[in-house]
Amino acid sequence: MANNSFRGSKHGRHGEAKHEAEFSCSLKELSTLMDLKGEDSVKKIKKKYGDVNGLCVRLRTSPVEGLDGNSEDIDRRKQVFGSNLIPPKKAKTFLQLVWEALQDLTLIILEVAAIISLCLSLYSPPDVERRNCGKAAGGEDDDGESEAGWIEGAAILLSVVCVVLVTAFNDWSKEKQFRGLQSRIEQEQKFTVIRGGQMIQIKVSELVVGDIAQVKYGDLLPADGVLLQSNDLKIDESPMTGESDHVKKSIDRDPVLLSGTHVMEGSGKMLVTAVGENSQSGMIFKLLAAGEDGDGDAKEKAKKKEKKEQKKKEKKDKKNNKAKKGNKDGVTEAQPLNEDGQPEKKKNALKREKSVLQGKLTNMAVQIGKAGLFMSLMTVLILIVRFVVDTFWIQGVPLTAECLPIYVQFLVKFFIIGVTVLVVAVPEGLPLAVTISLAYSVKKMMKDNNLVRHLDACETMGNATAICSDKTGTLTMNRMTVVQAHISGHFYRNLPEPGQVPATALDLLIHGIGVNCAYTTKIMPPEKEGGLPRQVGNKTECALLGLALSLHRDYQTVRNEFPEEKLFKVYTFNSTRKSMSTVLKNHDGSYRMYSKGASEILLRKCGKILSTTGHPRAFKPRDRDDLVRNVIEPMASEGLRTICLAYRDFNAADGEPNWEDEARILTGLTCIAVVGIEDPVRPEVPDAIKRCQRAGITVRMVTGDNIDTARAIATKCGILLPGDDFLCMEGKEFNQRIRNEHGEIEQERIDMIWPKLRVLARSSPTDKHTLVKGIIDSTVLEKRQVVAVTGDGTNDGPALKKADVGFAMGIAGTDVAKEASDIILTDDNFSSIVKAVMWGRNVYDSISKFLQFQLTVNVVAVIVAFTGACVTQDSPLKAVQMLWVNLIMDTLASLALATEPPTEALLLRRPYGRQKPLISRTMMKNILGHAVYQLTVIFTLLFFGEKIFDIDSGRYAPLHAPPSEHYTIVFNTFVLMQIFNELNARKIHGERNVFEGVLNNPIFCSILGGTFLIQIVIVQFGGKPFSCVQLSFEHWLWCIYLGFGSLLWGQLVSSVPTRWLKFLKTAGHGRRQEEIPDEELEEMKDVDEIDHAEMELQRSTVLWCRGLNRISTQIRVVNAFRDSVSPYEGLETPESRSSIHSFMSHPEFRVEDSGPQIPLIDEADCEDDAPTKRNSVVLPPPPTGNNNNTTDHIVPLPGLIPTNSAGLPPCPGSPLHSLETSL
Hints:
The chain contains 41 helices and 26 strands. Helix 34 (965-984) runs parallel beside helix 36 (1033-1055). By secondary structure, it is α+β, with helices and mostly antiparallel strands. The strands form 4 sheets. Strands 10, 11, 14, 15, 16, 17, 18, 19 and 20 form a 9-stranded mixed β-sheet that branches. The longest helix has 43 residues, at 830-872. The chain is elongated and about 120 Å long.
């Protein structure tokens, strides 16, 4: 036994020799076995171990009982064979992140300029008089200050360090969050193993060599292993081998299972033989990690040497030993796949299509960057030209070598100003804002049961226009129970007592349920006393097991009689069969097959049915139709899932059937029973669907159930409403209608169906994929659709991949479905999707808020720097000050505005869609409106500030002049205006109350308060580095007052309706603007434009008209009484009114008096706040044009309403109407 140890292996450790004696299989031996395939692996196992059981003996495990679960044994196995963990890629250190942040081009330029400035300020020729170099160079009075000239260069370097550290810290925290998310996903993964004879679920990381693992449909294999028992097992090995065909696995043909492959059909048991780094997928990860880590030339050289030595050894081995050739060929074959194939896959996976938001942001960042670069170049050019003209032409200063260092200092200063303009203009905070917003949302979404696997899915969900949802478990509770049954000719509305069912029928029913349900499915005792029993495994099968228990029979005794190893053949459930069958071999050589499946499919394969005595009788088509009409349809109409249970006997005299011919095997069945399974609709789902519909999202149900059940559940959920003209169809009909005579799918045909389709029943995963693809590719509607899809099965993978956002079920979902998805619903609940929509929309709005704030600062800062350079030969905002402003508007603002929590109001608007510009016209109005205010204040202070505050002017200061009070006030006011404008930026649709919900965001409040405190410190104690002097209390009050003016000005900007400003353009489209046709661009201007000023204007107009109408009516009634005239003269007589209700229902109430012309607005209109749906009262002829705003429909009235206006809606002119409305 000791000979089989891995002595000399590189995996060997001290103390392992003691354990090697216990396992007569070495790590190398098992690794070699895993490299083999097909017949080679069967021969190897037979030659070396006798059979798989022999390998189990060598690994000290039992194929039936599994490991005993002893912690010492588990630890020993981990020590010898390794644990099932692949070490994660080494995280970047903080210093590496700092180095990466330093690679930013603008920061490098700034650093170089600052170092040059620092060096030049420290160097000064001793024999040069500065006054001889021009006025701007300063004179003798500046000598003291010129010695402090180094401070500015040092301050810029310090600011750069701050920016770099903040960026690195953000990257570090982001990486930490993602690692936490990854570990959370890994912790969710569990696998079923047999330990101590019990089937238990353990974390994938706890798997060890020697474990007996239960493999089933939909699993992603977490370790390598050898098959012990299989039922119709098919594996997708494409992740490892690249072969797309599913590989059929069996003990006698191909028993090797590889980690990282997917179980596509069937079930089985495997002996785990390799885990972690020693498994096939672990080796690939190790090679990838080795390829990615460039840890220096020494290591690379060492690797090259090793490779050369390996090649030499391989050549020798090939010559000397042909037996080893096969094994080594297997290894070398795997290497090109590992080194070439796998990284290519990774690259393709990384090159995911850009999300809607990413595309818009990229285009916008490029445009702003170009504009910023142009402005910075112009600033530098104008500064240099002005300096040259002023010094050498106007002043006539000769160019001398002594003055050259001073002129270079000027050039460096101009260059620094230009670069800081570029730094402020380039929106490097955009990616940071997106990252922070998404990371924050992802963290919060976890609490809302959404585990986000791909970040961009978060914001894409905000644009979703359609959701294709599964029924079972998503819309329903996924706790299934049999509530009705048809057994032996009797239809039981309530479950029967055991005595009511014939004994033979009962035995067949219990045997069929016990054997023909997956052995991993079982009913467990409740966790808490008095609770419901726990359902483990497939919920439909759990319902059938529950039926067996309710009939006072134990399914476990049947399973003990027929253990899984004794099952002769299993046809596992799949989307094509829609049934499951299990074959048992009897002692006399005959076979019995039990089947269960969709009732309408399985009944067509039944030739007999159990009679009332429990014996088979003929089952004719007419009987089948009666059963469907009297049993199945009533069950389905109540929302019950109908399942048929049947069996078939194969006589020994007929010989062994061809088990591969499924069509002939699954025919001539005898129907035992049809059961109706109830899966109640989740109580919160109808409300969630209503919220989706209100938010402009269409919900479609795609299910495998029959159409009657699906329609009943859809009606309960609110997907279908009484009287709606929507389609419900089955997958078969759907396929017929979307294909042409050649059987090809046509987009035009899909476009005729999907807009009205709400329920697709009896659908296959292919149908779901076709529907999703058809909706996404469709151009039949104005807006292109953004589709979210839910799925749980392995075959749902293509649809989940194709969808813009794929939701996998966390509880019922297979590993394959989870792998293909973008978001995992940890509670399988539809209402969690609605929360994902809210968070997605919130991300989009958060980015828009940040953009609104940042672009206002951009516009103002760049114009101020540029104008200052043109007029005063200097920027009013110094380099260090602009870096501080850049820090405020990039890092801090992105943190403050990107962490706004979502509100229900987000679901009161329609989705933005793919082509909605990032910056709407309302936002553009806000940006330009606030920029106008800020520029007016800054330029007033810049050119008249010294007179207003009676202080010295800071303009035209020499090179090393001390900081001035004048420019400090300009800087302080500018920063305070940004701080107050940050509050305005919280609202992007023109809402008035900018403080609404501000206390719900502590991050925003703390950043706002922190920024203000730091600004006080900078101004009062910043001194020369920040070019500031201390300000008096009075000056501070003026600065705060001017900053606060941003809020007051914001109210004025909000009052201007956007439609008045036709000249405003949108920005940040999904496509480049020149790619969008002019007609489409014109249409997009007003589509979904939310403008609260417009709403207020319409509402105020309505109220004004209503008030005038009432006053006018009341004055006329008073005049009528005063003139001793009947108050009803000119009005319809009250006798004709039978009641107040009829009074309100007829509008022919008239006043014949003449009066001023007053516009009339329909009272019903006044109650409708939606600005886009106004049906105003319009007298003939109706006004032409598309404008449907209420204010445009003004109706001239002689008196109140002309005599020919009968038939108008309820008039607000009557005194009784006025009184009732007031009440």
